[in-house]
Design brief:
homodimer; alpha/beta; six-stranded mixed sheet; 14 strands; 37% helix
Chain lengths: 298, 298
C-alpha cells in the first residue's frame, strides 16, 4: 500500500477513464486506463467506482484525489459547474467541487457566455492551462483539440479567453454509422488528394449539408472513386471545422492536441490554410494541470 | 376485374409506395398506399410485389404499368439510369426502362454532371415535369421539395436545367435519434421565434457544425429553453438548406411541394428571405407526369 504524500489524478470521460498515481514533485508512480467511463457507473456507484480505482493502485490512500472531465457533468458524480471565460488555473482552483472535504475534488469546466454565443468545455481546460503552466504552450496561443466535439481554444496571458466547439467527430460518426453515406464511409479516412479536396471545399464553401450528398452522387455517376469517399468526407468536415474554429484568428501556429491520427489530419488541413500545426503532448499537459491545481490546495 | 385501357401508375419509394389505377384521359379510378417500399422487397420478389399491387386493384391487367421513384435505383427492381440535365419530359419518355416489353416500365432519374458538381434525383423529375405539363408550375421556376434529401430544382423552358440536393431531413433525424442533442430534439419543431432565430443563423452564418453544439450549451447554461431546441435546430438546418438551395437565384417565388408540415416550415423560412412560397400539389403533379409519359408511349 502506497501512503503519505501521493496524489491520485483521474481524467474521467464519458466512455473511458485514465488515472495516475503521483508522488512528490508530480512524478508519476503508476498509471492506469480502463473503459469505466461515467456512463458505465450506476447511480450511487461512485464510491465503489473510485474504490476500484484505488484497488488498482494497491489500495492507495492518496492525500488528495483530483478528477477532471465529464465526471463533473450533470451526468457524472457531481455537477462541478463551469467557471466563465476568461479563466486561468487559479479560477479553476478557487472553484474545485469537493465531493469529500479535503480529500476528493472535481475540477469545474469552463463556459463561454456572450449571448447568443454559448459554449462549454469540461476537461480541455485542465489540459490547456496545464500546458501553459508547464511551458508546453505559450501564454498567447490557439489550441485545437480534435475529436467527437472538437475544441478551438484561445489563450491570452495564460488564461482561456474564448473557445468554440465543433461537432465534427460526432457528425462523421453519425454519417458513417447511420446515414445513406454509411456504406461509402466504412473505409479509413487518410490524408491525400481526396482529403485535401474535401478540406478545400469545406474551407471555401458554405454548403456542407448539400456537399455531403454530392459525395454519394459522384460515386453513383462514376465521377469519384468509392474508396476516396471517407477521406473526402473527413476533409470536408475538417475544412468546415477549421473555418468555424479559426474564425478571424491571426495566429499562424495552431497547437494541436489529441489522438495522433486526428491531429495528423488537422495538421494537414491547417497546412492548406498556410498555418503551421504544432503538436502538444496532451498527457503531459493534463498531468501538469492537475499537479498545479493540487499544489494550490495542499 | 378492370381491363382494357386502364393504366397502373406506381410511385415506389424507399419505405412506401403509392399506386393509382387510371382510366381514359387520366381519370383516377382507384388509389392505394402501403409500406411496401423497395427495401421490403426481397431479391427476386419484384414480380410478386407487383402482383400484390394488381391484386389490390382487383387483379387488374393494365395496358401499361409505369413506375417512378427508387424502384429504378440500384437497390430497386432495375437500375433505370439517369437522364442528364437539361431534361424535359420527352427525354424521360425516350429513356423509359422496360422491365416487361410494352407492359411495365420504370422512369429514369435525372442527373447533374458538371464536375466537380454531381447530383441525382429519382422521382422528383416526374413530379416537376408533370407539374409543368399540367400547368401547375410555370415553365420557368424554382421548385423546393423538402424532406430527407431536400431538392431544389430549377426549371427553364419547361425542362430541368439544374438542381441541388441538401441532406436536411436526414441530418435532423440523425441528430434527433443518435446524437448528444437527441434528448433536446425529442420535441416537435414548429414555426415561431426559436425557429426563426435558427433560420436567421443558418442563412447568415457558415458555422453549422459549431452552432449545433451551441444549442446544447445554451440549454446547459440556462440561456435557452429546452423546449425551443427542436425548433431552433430545425430552423438552423432549414436556413442552411435555403442558403445552399437558393444559391444566386433571382426567383422571388419558390414552388414548394411535399409534406404539409415541412412545406409550412420552408414557407416561413422563405418568407424571412423576402421570397414567397407557393404550394404545389404533389400528387396531382406526379399523376400528370406519369399520364404524360404514358401518352408518349401508347
Amino acid at each position: 500500500m502506497v501512503t503519505g504524500e501521493t496524489l491520485l489524478f483521474v481524467d474521467w470521460g464519458t466512455s473511458n477513464r485514465r488515472a495516475w498515481l503521483v508522488g512528490p514533485g508530480g512524478r508519476v508512480l503508476q498509471e492506469h486506463a480502463d473503459a469505466r467511463g461515467i456512463l458505465s457507473v450506476e447511480p450511487g456507484g461512485w464510491d465503489a467506482a473510485v474504490a476500484e480505482l484505488r484497488h488498482v493502485f494497491e489500495d492507495v490512500e492518496p492525500r488528495l484525489t483530483l478528477m477532471t472531465g465529464m465526471v463533473g457533468s450533470n451526468r457524472g458524480w457531481a455537477d462541478a459547474g463551469y467557471v466563465p471565460c476568461p479563466a486561468g488555473i487559479e479560477d479553476l482552483a478557487a472553484k474545485l467541487h469537493w465531493v469529500e472535504p479535503d480529500a476528493v475534488a472535481i475540477v469545474p469546466g469552463v463556459c463561454l457566455r456572450d449571448p447568443p454565443r454559448a459554449d462549454v468545455m469540461r476537461g480541455e481546460e485542465v489540459q490547456v492551462l496545464g500546458a501553459v503552466a508547464a511551458g508546453l504552450l505559450p501564454p498567447n496561443g490557439l489550441v485545437c483539440h480534435p475529436g467527437t466535439h472538437a475544441k478551438w481554444i484561445e489563450v491570452e496571458d495564460g488564461r482561456i479567453t474564448g473557445f468554440r466547439t465543433v461537432m465534427t467527430g460526432e457528425l462523421f460518426a453519425l454519417l458513417a454509422n447511420h446515414s445513406i453515406l454509411s456504406d461509402l464511409l466504412a473505409g479509413e479516412a487518410a490524408d491525400g488528394d481526396a482529403f485535401r479536396l474535401g478540406v478545400d471545399h469545406g474551407l471555401g464553401n458554405c454548403d456542407l449539408t448539400a456537399e455531403l450528398f454530392q459525395i454519394r452522387a459522384r460515386v453513383l455517376l462514376g465521377d469519384a472513386a468509392r474508396e476516396d469517399a471517407a477521406s473526402y468526407a473527413s476533409g470536408l468536415l475538417i475544412g468546415a471545422d477549421l473555418r468555424a474554429g479559426l474564425g478571424r484568428t491571426r495566429h499562424d501556429v495552431v497547437h494541436v492536441v489529441g489522438r495522433p491520427d486526428l491531429t495528423a489530419l488537422y495538421a494537414a488541413a491547417l497546412d492548406q490554410t498556410g498555418r503551421r500545426a504544432e503538436r502538444l503532448d496532451g498527457d503531459r499537459a493534463v498531468l501538469a494541470g492537475l499537479q498545479r491545481l493540487a499544489e494550490t490546495v495542499l
